[in-house]
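Checklist before submission:
- one chain only
- standard amino acids only
- sequence pasted in full

Submission:
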Amino acid sequence: MRGKPFQLGNRLGKGRPPGTRNKRTIFQEALESHGVETINQAKLLALRPNPDMTALRLCFEGLVAKPKPPNGRFRLPGLRTPADLLKVFSALERAVASGQTSAQDGLAVAEIIERHRRAYETGEIDQRLRALEQGGQEIPLEPIVQIPDKKDEDP
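Returned file contents:
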């Protein structure tokens, strides 16, 4: 039965509840509390006359992952017209400033919003160009007026 792997009312199939820790987080907490001996042994290895710092770094990178900010949850107003862009950017700035999301996540969302703006702009330019082509109107160009240099001016 594709598409519906669980019966209605199944509580076991909903996945891990929000806020519970995964195995890596539990391991990191255990390493912080009981891993002092391991870290001290690694320090002794690092203090040898010719330590292999690359190997030590790789060992520690495997043990402890780089910290990542938690996923932020916030609401953005609807983005239907270019006029909505200001509201969306303001809401995003408020979310970053209040700590609802990290600066990195805010930057990623801002880039997505900027791509929406470019898409609106491209669509608007395309509409204007099509209107000009269909209407057969030419844009009148004014002649360029040369600005006199200061040397050419008579006192």
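Reviewer check: The chain has a mean pLDDT of 76.
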